Amino acid sequence: MAQSLDALLPWFDAHKRDLPWRRTDDPWAIWVSEVMLQQTQVATVVPYYLRWLQRFPRPQALAEADEQEALALWQGLGYYRRCRLLQKGARHVVEHGYPEAYEGWLKVPGVGPYTAGAIASIAFGVPVPVVDGNVERVYARLRADRKTGAELHRNAWKWSRKVLDKKRPGAWNEALMELGATVCRPGKPDCPRCPVETACVGRMLGLEESLPTRQAPPKVVKLRHAVWVPVFEGKFGVVQIPEGQWWEGMWEFPRAESEGPMEVPELRELVGPGWLQTAGQIHHTVTRHKITIDVSLIRCETRSERLRWETAEGLARLPMPTPQRRCLKAALLRL
What we know:
Layout: H1 8-15, H2 27-37, H3 42-55, H4 59-64, H5 67-74, H6 81-96, H7 102-105, H8 113-124, H9 133-142, H10 149-163, H11 169-182, H12 201-204, E1 221-232, E2 235-240, E3 251-252, E4 255-257, H13 265-271, E5 274-286, E6 289-300, E7 308-310, H14 312-317, H15 322-332
């Protein structure tokens, strides 16, 4: 089977996309790219990656930075836990140095088997495989594996270890991921362009479009929130999101679960007296959660000491989740 994949690396060398993290063997730059690329498309990541490395060109720069600054630079990229763990990991390598072995990377906070394999193989040439969603899909089609979930993932790891090119492990891992991202795509793969089409059992059996076996989608959870945007003497009131909640450590306008817009007792208690005005409704999706947000502008009579007050320009410098930015935009239309 390994020899039947011989065309993969020459294809990758000739057709790989010119991406900024492929122009370096710097472990930090590769690490940043792998973290940002988790659950995020390449086109979205590129500008964030370039801005991030301009501000944090080495782990020490991030290790010494305030978390709020890091979150502010990350905002809009989503999955903010990645940012916090990257900072913890940066502090670890500043103290202990870069590990070169795969096992050493697994000890770095926030680095799991996939990221450890990617950094070790691409930056240090360690012969270890990586398996992401792209590799899993390529494997399922090549081997006509009808398994799903954790069993498919385990099988993909076992296969990846067997077929790994130990002379160029980093390029091999990138080639498999590139194949999945650009040719062996979800839904309808572009099989005529595939360099290993003749090795694909799924293609031979006419199963290429039905693999990997689709799992039932997770049940959608519908939520409804009320958000009040307090304004007093040209400044807006925000609170820091507590630990354990979505977007923890970032800033938001007072928010609560509700059955509808307008009066919400806990928000009235937090914000204080004022004139409440409907500002519209926005919709936001977080993983399998669909959130309807009723936005209200409240013109406060007093300045609540329980809130942090900032101008619109000041808010632009604070890390705020995307739906909160949209809430501000809706409220500004009522001012």
